[in-house]
Please model this.
Amino acid sequence: MFSSEVREKWLRTAESLKPELRMHRVEPVRVVAIRHNERAFQKWEVEALPEDSGGVDSLTAKQWGRGESFVLDFGEYLVGRLEFDLLPAGTVDAPTRLTLVFGETAAEIAEPFDPYCGLLGRGWLQDETLTLETLPRRIRVERRCAFRYVKITVVDTSPAFSVRFSGVMCEQVSSADWGGVAPLSRMADGDIFPADILEIDKVSLRTLACCMQTVFEDGPKRDRRLWVGDLRLQALVNYKSFQNYDLVKRCLYLFAALAKEDGEVTACVFEKPLPQAGHTNILDYSALFVNTLLEYAEASGDWRTAAELWQVAKRQMEIVFGYVNSNGLFVDPGTWWIFIDWQEELRKQTAMHGVVICSLAAGALLAERLGFSGEAEQWSQRAEAMRRAANEHLFCPQRKLFMSEPQECSKAQISWASQAWMVLAGVVRDAEARKLMRTLAVSPDAVRPAGPYLYHYVVDALLYANLEEEAMKLLRGYWGGMVERGADTFWEVYDPEHPFLSPYNSYIMNSYCHAWSCTPAYFIRRFPKTFSRKNVHKLQSRGRS
Amino acid sequence: MFSSEVREKWLRTAESLKPELRMHRVEPVRVVAIRHNERAFQKWEVEALPEDSGGVDSLTAKQWGRGESFVLDFGEYLVGRLEFDLLPAGTVDAPTRLTLVFGETAAEIAEPFDPYCGLLGRGWLQDETLTLETLPRRIRVERRCAFRYVKITVVDTSPAFSVRFSGVMCEQVSSADWGGVAPLSRMADGDIFPADILEIDKVSLRTLACCMQTVFEDGPKRDRRLWVGDLRLQALVNYKSFQNYDLVKRCLYLFAALAKEDGEVTACVFEKPLPQAGHTNILDYSALFVNTLLEYAEASGDWRTAAELWQVAKRQMEIVFGYVNSNGLFVDPGTWWIFIDWQEELRKQTAMHGVVICSLAAGALLAERLGFSGEAEQWSQRAEAMRRAANEHLFCPQRKLFMSEPQECSKAQISWASQAWMVLAGVVRDAEARKLMRTLAVSPDAVRPAGPYLYHYVVDALLYANLEEEAMKLLRGYWGGMVERGADTFWEVYDPEHPFLSPYNSYIMNSYCHAWSCTPAYFIRRFPKTFSRKNVHKLQSRGRS
Model:
């Protein structure tokens, strides 16, 4: 599809854009205990040790021997490499053995990792064992870890000596430049923001910053790779905050250079040891490459890149449009993973139909801006035909909601995914869209989102339909719920009712700093007035009346 | 006692003699299984896997995933660093986690290390856990390990990939130069040696070579430090084989430079991170510093070093002689560790009395060679007075054996340690010495040696008394017993009746390549005719007649 010369050129472009990582030294702020508590999130809570136990400064004074351990809290979520001096007290007549456990959450520190029964590789869990032949030594854990807490256990010294710790710090790495981020407070036209909105914004940006490495990673603890679907959301937040356009550009070129033989963009790519395509294909992700490219060009003004990668975008549109039948309906070929959301019972045809429309509509805009007016017109018409088809075949007139697939109305599955994507695709607009989303809100049988990725699109749809109050409530309730449970970065998986939910049969394997969860800052910073105090108060009082 | 200028000069001399280590790449020879077998030494035996399972070459072809493991046999005992290529099969979408267990013996590979209840530091046990963020990778385990077997377990990859191993090798390190070792076969004046003698010699030299690093280590797996008592024995073998005089010299200067304030040589010193004295003091070891210095000068002809360190040697003599009372008897002050042997029930006064005589006698010789004839005479007379005292106070005329301390004969403890040291000290000589050792041999109540260190002095005493046959039997029986049990280096602890014996409450913590056990080669190479086939046959037929 694309010649190897072109691919190599794209790869060179991507590599030329690889950012230098910013290093920042962070010290732990306190020594803590992790206590079992039935009422705490995941049943473990972090408790500061009393002042007289000495805090971080006392580490150097204390001596640690066989089986002794302590837990450090760095006060914030970090991605980087741990360093410390290990000093002897006594005659070092044996190697020192340490284990380090790095935790994004308290539970990761407290729960044993083994025996491990998760579906993903055990290697993601962040525990390291060190054998140190001589002391004193400056120790640097070369593995890049993602954590707020670290538990250090002295497995053993010897009867002749114990050890002291000094100069513990994390060399934090990120390509995000906080200097470029406008303070949220300046955005509200003299008004201020409610405390929870400020906190949600901060946690969003921290989540994004931690994922911003030499690509936009999905999670700095686990997966650590670049996914199209996550990239789109990260890029949107990035345009409103760190404004690192080159990092988005690099990622777009990586996907383009590593596309499959037939031009299909793979769902994810790996950077190391050399850039390579992942073997996962997700149809909705491929489709949204088009939107990601358009939004990049709009935000950065870099239409040259858009022009250079237009063929890649167009190829994704051709691929997804290839699954649209003569009635204008997307039909699942059964050979692809269609993600939409983790929810197992969710039937995805309608949502995917909406994604395809969004992709084609973005492609039409892109073609128009690039001067391909004939193509623009063609894709625009196709999108419009699909909107009509949706209204004709996917809408249930009795329930006044979209079904998950063409179906007898009485047997239809109703889901948040379907309604959100129909709104985002412009199948229904304005008053009709508002009515749809309000009907959905009072449909308890509707299949709800299972995770942040779909919640993002639901909030987006609500704002698209001008349902400010509902969007705000959902954002404050869902992401605010994570903050209430102690999140200082947003999570890959969050269901308020199921704290141990995991797609991987291991909730400690979940990523607790996950890119697709970082979008509240995008909404807040895109519509600052909506989230400002005055408006929040106004909407609340309207809600009460 | 010694000025800091002098100490610093000695330390500089020691450092200037630090050898460059020889590196040698060794590949594993086979893939093996470790099987439980009640009749095997320590109940584990090594079994070669059948040819069709592929051997070492198949490692590269096979793919290994979660929980899979294999055991490599390097065919000989090695000290060094393991290296291998870890290659991916599939898409590397997670870190790879490996554990490596290095074993001197089969039991170390098979027995779990944890929970660990040993008395010494758990860090000595050689297991390493690696988390590898990307593949392919050349892995080098920076910890220096001592092993013949290594078990590699793939704790996990991920469902998307497995791993292959290639280029497994050990970068072996030693300061021993095998090129300088005369083949034993040339030493027998046209005769040849029995197979077991050849094997015992080979195992002895391998033991020594593995302990020869930048100092003479006592054991390359555990302790890894320089002890006076071990040094003396290593040096004796070294003079007959590798002839690395500078390494002995370096060790002598280290002990001298790091002697305690009062001039006492500590039992051991550490090299890293900077040379420093150990806090262990062993009186018999301090005493034998004198012998070690004399033997070094005699072997190397380097009497300048002997002259420079004479004050250190003399100080040890003064210290030990300080515990000799007016009757000429050594009296245990109770403030020292007197080692002699691990045997718990052993009472050590007589043996230590013999050690002191040996020390003073060596000092007298040293003084004479250095031209201090007055001092030589004085120390010689003191030694002679102690011999008389031993005959007067320590000999039991009824049993015709030495008691372990001045005692009523009927209540006396009889031990191999006491008789051996009385012979070595020249308290009895020639026919009397032979009678003593033969009487001992038919005294079943005599406390036997517990380990190789004392067995060395017993063999030495037998040869000293011209009891060729008995010396040979003991050497072939004791060290040959280790060979029969699979040793390819000689052990720190060996009691044929107690395979799980350990001074550390953990037999896998024992060192299975231990310097003090390497002396058969010294005896064989010092008296090649004695150990040659003709003589062995002659002695055996005499034994039968």
